[in-house]
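Quick start: read one record
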Amino acid sequence: MEELGHEGDAVELKEEELRLVAIRRRATRLAVALVTDPFAVGTDAQLRSYVERDADEAQVLVREVLALPPARLRERIAELTRGEAVQGGVTV
């Protein structure tokens, strides 16, 4: 699917963006668990999983995004906020 830059058009998420979004969602669920049930076994498991699986990759992905030239970063943000983000025909 091609990227479209017109208002209301679908914008294809790149693989790195999808991974970063997924990590962000897991981090948000972890943050909620740490506040609502910090001593639960499940919360401990989520924390360990995030540290072992996601934390390093998230740092790498964020650095890649922030390394984009400022004009390209603003352009990409505008693309994503103008249209519905989709991956493989599925709205994300």
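Confidence is low (pLDDT under 50) at residues 1-7.
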